[in-house]
Structure formats: structure tokens, C-alpha cells
Write a structure and sequence with these properties.
The protein is mainly alpha-helical and 163 residues long. It has 4 helices and no strands. The protein has a domain of 62 residues: Flavocytochrome C3, Chain A, domain 2, CATH 1.10.1130.10. Helix content is 29%, strand content 0%. The chain binds heme C (2 copies). The site of one heme C has 21 residues, from helix 2. One heme C (HEC) binds next to helix 2.
């Protein structure tokens, strides 16, 4: 009977210990480490300071597009340009009627098309909020390694393989 009591006591200690161990791992699962994004390290419940905002790119001028349908990056600052339902300051320089005077490239004909490829008289509502697709170019370092290859590089490698 004494032996049975000791066994039962041992079992109880073991069960309690196990419960405490799972409790401890359970609490660390509630605050796992955050994925490394803009802010490296930390956990989901920590708030680390934000990195400084990227500055304007060193080289001025338009960038070569990597493929025909890439929205070109904006080669100038857009700080303070108003774009809302009443005013679109981008179109002060990029619309059909103002582009030449402003020395800016006109928005392409695709920006006048509706979803049925019908060309409208004015920029289509789907293209009105320019910064949905166009972003200013900055001096930001890439967040992750990037092995993107341009379409020219892909075609050149294909041609070499065929030879
Ligand atoms: C004051 C006139 C002006 C305003 C306002 C303006 N732009 Fe521009 N934009 C230009 C000029 C000029 C260029 C050409 C720059 C060059 O050739 O180096 C240009 C170039 C661009 C290009 C590059 C096109 C290409 O083919 O490389 C994009 C995209 C662009 N602007 C988008 C915008 C957007 C979006 C806005 C509004 C947030 C805007 N621009 C407001 C004058 C303007
Ligand atoms: C839905 C995405 C989208 C929106 C919104 C959009 N664009 Fe574009 N833009 C593109 C793409 C994609 C291209 C390149 C292919 C093309 O011309 O359609 C382009 C091309 C351009 C070009 C170069 C034209 C050329 O012939 O070289 C300019 C300038 C431009 N956009 C300005 C603007 C301005 C200004 C606005 C806002 C009024 C705007 N875009 C809104 C996607 C967009």
C-alpha cells in the first residue's frame, strides 16, 4: 500500500511537470518571432522603431522598363501633389492637352481605355489614381535578394540554349 502511494505521488509530480512545461511552450507560441521585413528581428508583440524613409534616387531621368507592361517608375518627387476626386495634379503635366507644354510624356492610350478596350475621351476612372501603379524611384536598398531577369536576358539565354 505504501509503495502504491509513492508510485501515485510520483505520477502526480510527473503529470504536473508536463503540464507546466506545455504551459511554458504555449506562452512562447503566443509571441513568436516576427518575419524579417522592413524591420529586422523582434516578435509580433514588440514594436521596434521604423527605419528611415527612403530618399530620392541619386540619378535623375527616366528608367528603362524591364518588360513592356511595366508601369514606369516616377523619376521626380511627387511630394504634395494632390490626387483626389476633385483634382489630379499629375494630369496638370501628363494629360493629352498639357504634356507637350510641360515637357512630360503623355499618359499612354491604354489610360483612356475602359475594361472593354473602348477608348474614352478622358483618362479612364480605373487609371485615375496614378500612384496605385506608379511609384517614385528611391535610393532604397533591396529588402531581399532579387534575381529578377529582364525579358532581354531571358530571350538571350533561350537563344544560347538553342544553339
Ligand atoms: C510639373 C509637372 C509634372 C507633374 C505635376 C507630374 N509630373 Fe510626372 N513627369 C514630368 C516630367 C517633365 C517627366 C519627364 C522627366 C524626365 O524626362 O526626366 C515626368 C515623368 C514621369 C513618369 C515617367 C514616364 C516614363 O515613361 O518613364 C511617370 C510615371 C510620371 N511622371 C508620373 C507622374 C505622377 C504619377 C504624377 C502625380 C503624382 C506626376 N508624374 C506629376 C512632369 C510632371
Ligand atoms: C492600373 C495601373 C495604372 C494606373 C492607375 C496608371 N498607370 Fe500609367 N502606366 C501603367 C502601365 C502598365 C504603363 C505602361 C504600359 C502602358 O502604357 O499602358 C503606364 C505608362 C504610363 C506613362 C508612360 C507613357 C508612355 O507612353 O511612355 C505615363 C507618363 C503614365 N503611365 C502616367 C500615369 C498617370 C499620370 C496616371 C494617373 C492619371 C497613371 N499613369 C495611372 C499603369 C497605370
Amino acid at each position: 500500500m505504501k509503495l502504491f502511494g509513492a508510485l501515485l505521488g510520483g505520477l502526480l509530480v510527473a503529470v504536473l511537470g508536463l503540464a507546466m512545461a506545455t504551459e511554458r511552450t504555449g506562452s512562447s507560441a503566443q509571441d513568436p518571432s516576427a518575419p524579417d521585413g522592413l524591420r529586422k528581428g523582434g516578435s509580433f508583440q514588440q514594436t521596434l522603431p521604423a527605419p528611415p524613409m527612403a530618399g530620392q534616387a541619386r540619378e535623375a531621368g527616366r528608367e528603362t522598363r524591364n518588360y513592356p507592361e511595366q508601369p514606369p517608375v516616377i523619376p521626380h518627387s511627387i511630394r504634395g501633389y494632390q490626387v483626389d476626386t476633385r483634382v489630379n495634379q499629375c494630369l496638370d503635366c501628363h494629360s493629352r492637352s498639357t504634356a507637350i507644354r510641360a515637357g512630360a510624356p503623355m499618359v499612354s492610350v491604354t489610360h483612356f481605355m475602359d475594361r472593354n478596350q473602348q477608348v474614352l475621351a478622358a483618362v479612364s476612372p480605373g487609371r485615375y489614381f496614378c500612384t496605385q501603379c506608379h511609384v517614385p524611384k528611391t535610393d532604397a536598398a533591396p529588402l531581399v535578394e532579387n534575381d529578377f531577369r529582364t525579358v532581354d536576358e531571358v530571350l538571350r539565354d533561350l537563344a544560347r540554349e538553342r544553339r
